[in-house]
Amino acid sequence: MPRHRLSWISLFALFLLLLSSLAAWAGAFAPPNPAFVAYVEDQARATSEGTARTEGGRTPSPVDLSHLAGKSLFTSAGDKGAWFPATFDLRKSGLSSPVRDQAPYGSCWTFSAMASLESTALRAGIASPDYAEMHLGYFGCVDRSPELPGFKDVAATLPLQTLMDQGGDDFRATALLARGTGAVDETEAPYEEIPDGAAPLSRRLETVYNFYYDSGTRYQKASVENIKRAVAFYGAASVGVYASDPQTGNWNLSPYFNSATSAAFIPAGNPDGLTVGWANHAVTVVGWDDTYSRENFNALNRPEGDGAWIVKNSWGDSWGDGGYFYLSYEDAALDTGAVYIGTTVDAFERIYQHDPLGWVTSYSPAADGGERAWMANVFTAAEEGRIESVAFYAGGVDNVAYISVHTGVEAGAPRSGLCVIDSQGATLEAPGYHTIHLDEPVDVAAGTTFSIVVDLTTPGYDYPVAVENRSRGYSDKATAARGESFVSVDGTTWTDLTDVDATANVCLKAFADGPVGHLPKPTLLSPETDADDVSLTPSFSWQAVSSDEGAVVYDVLIGGFPIAQGLTTTTLAWPSGQEPLRGHTIYRWWVTARVENKPELDTKSDARNFTTLNALPSVRNDAPADGALNVAAEPTFSWTADDGDGDSLSFVLYLTDESGRILSADAGTGAAHSWTEPLDAGAIYLWQVSADDGWGGSALSERTSFRVALDPVASGDIDFKNPSFEGGKIVIPDGGLTLTWQPPKGLGAGETVSYVVTVRDAEGTVVFRGETTATELFLKGLVGHGTYTVTVDAVVENVGTVTGTPKVFETANRPPVEASRAPADGAVDIPANGRLSWRYDDPDGDALTYVLYLGTEEALTDDDIVPLSADATGYALSNADGRRFWKLAVDDGFGGVVASSVRTFIADGGLRQIGELSPASGDLFSIAGLVIVSTDLSGAEGPAGIDVTTLRQPSAIDNLKVASADIDDEKLTQGLRQGTGEAGKATSVGTPFGLSFEADADIALVPLTIRIDRDALPFDAVSADLLDHLRFVKVLDDDLAFDLVTLAGADRNRFFSVAEEAESFSVSFRLALLDRALPADRSSAVQTLTVDGKGYFLVHDGAEDGIFTDPLVPVHFEAAATGGSSGGCALGAAPAALLLLLPALLSRRGK
User: Fold this and answer.
1) Where in this chain does the entry annotate a coiled-coil region (predicted)?
2) pLDDT above 80 (res 940)
3) Do residues 480 and 422 lie in contact, with contact meaning Cβ atoms separated by under 8 Å?
């Protein structure tokens, strides 16, 4: 039984021991990042399906920071600048390095990390940093040494493309930089070459701030402000985005990207399921623009509000907007980010670490988790040195750490041995990687075992201890050994972390300088810790230290950058030639003391932070210049502004008019603004600009003045005095046009103004220019059918010329004007080969063309057109004979066509037929002839009262009067009444006679329209029907006799009363029809010629070249009457009646 009892006792003791052991390591690891879990599953699935491939890019980390959603980070920095400017751009202050190109590798994560580190280096005063992305990416995959392995279990012999396409993230980049794998200069490890690992470091990592971005409406404000604080106070931030198209893989074709504006946005709840975990590309935020319009995004997917991050890509500067793009604040796939802050290379010489692969997961030694935990790492000093700093990760906000350093620790007991540093406190406001400088450096000899112990509280995060362990597909090469890393709930009972996970180590590092003597560290005095509003050129002071080894000198460093070295005093005024600090910026400074002749014997003071005051901006007006005249009514204002802090300034433009009214406009962040509301013409304004840096600093420029240009004399102000129009075109009066206009608007009272009027033709040639002080001017030199442009420039005293607005007008065509035309209307005696001539003037100077109508009828038709040369001004007749009618059609080629009146003339080609003659009132004409009377009557007498005398009196024929009184009436009467002789023989009276008449009314001498006043005759036998039986025919042959009148049957009784005893009679006339009055001496003009008993006449003026030299064309008229009639007139009535026809045988002379 006792044995049995002892057995139970033993079992109980063993059980208690087991419980104790379980309690010692019964902690909890943080849940992994869901995006990482999904990524690993996808990779495993692809491997099993044979479709796995490496594409590089940004891959998720196992660390989950979703607990940071909605939390404001950088609160102390935020307290100093809770209000952010609407726009901010690191490029404007020179704090963003140039755009790089990652091609051909999927190494974007190295580019975003280096871009952030370069940006913070620029802020620290390092010129043109360019850190090697290849070095970081290559040794993130390939072992640099056994102590510094690559992350993934891949062979170093794989092609470089495969190695560089393994992918990465900010946690990997942080681990590599923190362990000393970079940063190195690009020149030491070019992107095109495989690095050999021998490149010297150029920049060490000191701090990395991590933040979580949640695009949900609940947390969006905090997320946006966190990035703004990080970028504004520290530098560019590395973030993850989704940069592809779920369907095509081409981002430019994605409905979430607008390639025209380089704007990206993925909405929450999108059909492709894209969320934070889908970020596949690492980029760098360099600024923001709250005013960036939502309309700039792809029309298929637009955010609810304006605002975007200004993002630098790593695809070269030919992509996007010079290598940049805009990312909406509301983007659903924007992932966790980081800001990398470095320090100088000589900050330490050796790193003691067990976590070369960095933060892989988080752990709480409490089973149910908790915000507080203890962690420790134990190291063995490899050489004599001084432990000056420690570094670790913290996952909460406003984390609190207490740091202890122990030397000579025992195995498994990290708090044993000598406590050299006991609970040095530190508050870490933001999650991430933090380096803490020890208040008192700890000297260690080679082989000394020492521990770094941290009591850490991470508010809001229940897994305080950052741990490196093996995570397949991420940290494949993580290893651990017992006795290296420990965790504890209370700092008393410790658990070796390998008891929890054999591959796990605490992420806790120690940094040591080389061996030193006994030199105490200086104590900083001014500026005080966390001092605010420190000058941009501050002075520094510290307490002196001394050494038995020699004289001590001091180096003063700000942000790891020395601003003074080798000082022998303990104060420093800002060095001349040193650039001032930037305003409203947190700076970290410390002093290094060293023995002058023993540089290895040095020590470093505690580091202190201070915040510089905000540097006030300055601004001055540029344009319009002070006193400028003729400024546009919608001017563009420009100014020069400067901000000593490199802040993005916002401006407000103010204008004050002459009444004191103030106008203002938000001018944005540019250095110019276009005024869009027209200012008053001629008015004087004062203007100035206010500049605001967004941090409480503002400036106002000095007010300057300008005068708005007068409104010019515009086209609508120009008119013509009493204009008339033809077809919408202005008709030019004789002489020219009078132009009128309104004065320019804005003229001041009493200002003197004159005007310059310029008229140009369609080719731009100046055709008129004139000056006046009036508001009208007479224009000369214009022609019709022209297009003109007129401007009226106002010349204002003390202002200058106000150029007018052109007015275009068209002038109507002016038709040609007849200047002369010959021969005159009604002209006679025109030679048969004479010439028609004319001259027309065109007011517009146009070339004229003529169409000549020439014919024998007054109603001229196109059949009467005769050909002319192009520039004809005359026409030569050819054998013209008798009466002709003519007219002209004149064309100026611009629609001006003039038809002349119809004129008539008689060409002296022979005598004219009666039908060709039409005397008009006042015309002179004449007849001449020889009467031959042949009758079978004897002793007959003519009717009483019928004689020549009666016939030539106006009372006998209204339309005729005798114009020549020297007529031998006796002989003429005798000739008409001669009736004695043998029957059948002609009795010839050879005396010629001539009558000259002047028409006192128009007489129509065309066939069948002869006017005879029968009421003046002593009998009623003559009627108008007589004329229906007359035919007038020109003699065509030598037989000069032909029937003129045939009176037959009852017709004779209608016209004549013939004696019963008379059976027949005939009367022949030989008539010469002259187209002018006979000369006074008719005997020389009229001669008789008798041939075969028939009389002829030659009519001429006695000159060889006279116009009447052609032989007279004889015309024979024969009248016959048969039958008889009762009573009435004697036979002499027949000759008398025929004589009544004489007025019809007239010619016409034109006036």
Assistant:
1) none
2) no
3) no
ω into 520 cis (within 30 of 0):
no
Interatomic CA distance for residues 214 and 268, integer angstroms: 11
What are residue 811's DSSP bridge partners? 730
Say how far apart CA 371 and CA 40 lie, in whole Å: 29
Instruction: State the Cα–Cα distance between residues 289 and 237, nearest whole angstrom.
Output: 15
In whole angstroms, give the CA distance from residue 748 to residue 756.
19
From residue 625, how far is each of 290, 320, 683, 702 by CA, in Å? 32, 38, 15, 12
> Please, what is the end-to-end C-alpha distance for the chain in angstroms?
179
Asked if 742 and 713 count as a contact pair (C-beta separation under 8 A), the reply is yes
Tokens read off for 342: 């470095």
Instruction: Record the tokens describing residue 602, joined without a space.
Output: 């040095």
CB neighbour list of residue 1081: distance below 8 Å, 6 or more residues apart:
none
Answer yes or no: are the C-beta atoms of 816 and 848 closer than 8 Å. yes
Neighbours of 1135 (CB within 10 A): 23
What does R_g of the chain's alpha carbons equal in angstroms? 64
Q: E strand or H helix at 1139, and its extent?
A: helix 1133-1139
Q: Which residues face 426 on adjacent strands?
A: 401
Residue 1097 has pLDDT above 70, yes or no: no
Report the 10 Å Cβ neighbour count for 828.
23
259: left (phi over 0), alpha (psi -120 to 50) or beta: alpha
Q: Interhelix angle for 170-178 vs 108-123, to 10°?
A: 60
Letter string b/e over residues 1051-1078, b meaning 16 or more CB atoms within 10 A of that residue's CB: bbbebbbbbeebeebbbbbbbbbbbbbb
Query: What are the residues whose beta carbons fall under 8 Å from the beta carbon of 1037, sequence distance 6 or more?
Result: none
> 879 pLDDT band (50/70/90 cuts)?
confident
Record the tokens describing residue 606, joined without a space: 């505690």
Q: Which two tokens stand for residue 259?
A: 């390639």
Q: Read off the pLDDT band of 76 (50, 70, 90).
A: low
Rounded distance between C-alpha atoms, residue 1108 and residue 917, angstroms: 17
Backbone CA torsion sign across 896, 901, 907, 913: positive
- Between CA 1147 and CA 1074 the distance in angstroms is 6
Write out pLDDT tens, residues 512-532: 986 655 678 899 999 999 899
- Taken in order 862, 863, 867, 868, the sign of the CA dihedral is negative
Please state, in angstroms and as integers, the Cα–Cα distance from residue 951 to each residue in 284, 946, 959, 996, 1138, following that order.
Answer: 130, 7, 11, 13, 12
Q: Is the separation of the CB atoms in 362 and 403 below 8 Å?
A: no
Written as six digits, the tokens of 309 are: 């991050």
Q: Is the pLDDT of residue 1014 over 80?
A: no
Residue position matching structure tokens 């470095």: 342
- Does the pTM of the predicted model rise above 0.90? no
Distance of CA 178 to the CA centre of its chain: 53
